[in-house]
Amino acid sequence: MMQCLLHLRQHRAYEALAKTREWRDLSQPQAADVTVVIMGMGVLGQDAAHKLAVMGFEVIGWSRTKRAIEGIDTFDAAGLDAFLGRTDFLVGLLPLTAGTRGIFDAVLFKKLSRKVRSAPRCSSTPGRGGSQVEADILQCLDSGVLGGASLDVFEEEPLLQESRFWTSPSVYVTPHVAASSDVKALFAHVNEQIHRFESGLPLNMS
Question: N or C: which end of the chain has fewer CB within 10 A?
Fold first, then answer.
């Protein structure tokens, strides 16, 4: 949600204006005018989809095998091109398999929607670094096919010091921390699950 909102609200553009002390209001699209598509509709993907929908985004989902998810349009492998054609913001949460390695490449990015010109077509990959082709991401950023990217995982980690991602004005880099949580909160959750299990109650999957 944070990364989608940063791109929606053009946070990097405002950061650049602030550095030059320029007071200027940028045109802002509505979240409802932006379609966020999530590739990978497992537990994490479904949770992200529902929370982004609450924020007002139109959200659709894709997985190799179609899933029925209340309130979310979903597509399967056969519908990939139609799915991508509706995409303004792409969120990659696919597991890394032989079929998903390098799936986020220039061919895929060029199929993304261009309907909301005030909202950059952006890619966010909090999933697996091996699912993306980093040279293609840079190429698409340079050519304008992508207007921005939020990258938490990489083909090689730690991210190389000389990587252009560090200095690109349209890229947010985080060090593989998208799933990081407060340790005390994790212990509290595990303790609750143990209590529920020992009491014969169903586990809390939310």
Answer: C
Same domain for 80 and 136?
A: yes
Looking at residue 206, its pLDDT comes to 65
**Secondary structure class of 179 (helix, strand, coil):** coil
Pair 91, 124: CB distance under 8 Å: yes
Per-residue tokens: 138: 């840079």
What's the pLDDT score for residue 190?
93
Range of the domain at 165: 2-175
Catalytic residue, candidates 128, 164, 195, 196: 128
- Dist CA 7 CA 204 (whole Å): 32
- Dump pLDDT digits (tens) for 109-161: 999 986 655 556 788 888 899 999 999 999 999 999 999 999 999 999 999 99
Number of structural domains (the chain) is: 2
Distance in angstroms (rounded) separating the CA atoms of residues 91 and 93:
6
Residue 128 appears among annotated catalytic residues? yes
Same domain, 158 and 68: yes
Catalytic residue among 11, 64, 67, 176: 176
Residues 102 and 202 in one domain: no
